[in-house]
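Reopening this ticket.

The earlier resolution said the output was attached, but the attachment link was broken on my side. Pasting everything inline this time so it's all in one place.
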Amino acid sequence: MALTFWHPIPPQTIVLWDAKYRRPGGSYPSLSAAKVKKWWPEIRRALNAPGTTVTGKIAGANFKHVNGALGELNGHAMLVAAGHYSILEPGRTTAGGVDFITYYHGPVSPLDWQIAVESALKQHRVEGRIFRWPGCIVTR
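Inline output:
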């Protein structure tokens, strides 16, 4: 399956992702400076401890949670395969906050992606996006 981006992601941007499973409509809340700043410690923690996610079961018996987990895991994997760097992998589907975080540098890979992420964070280049599963569509 190919990814469809309705709005291109600017290069050198940290992306906070919300994965949705076949839900029409909806949008990611606007990212005020205060909301972005709220996630800086999470981004920094993820950079300092790669592979650490929210612990617990990925999904419970609720079918919506299983579908949500599929959307998050597949969305993350497809974005990484498409050139995004993983900052925070998907965790528990019912955990609060964003579903996962990536960094998109653009067509040319950075020499050190962690330094590139720090630079993007300092320059407030952070956006929220929705990954719609199973259509593999990226919206704002």
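Reporter confirms the inline version is readable. The chain has a mean pLDDT of 76. The helical segments are 33-48, 63-81, 113-122.
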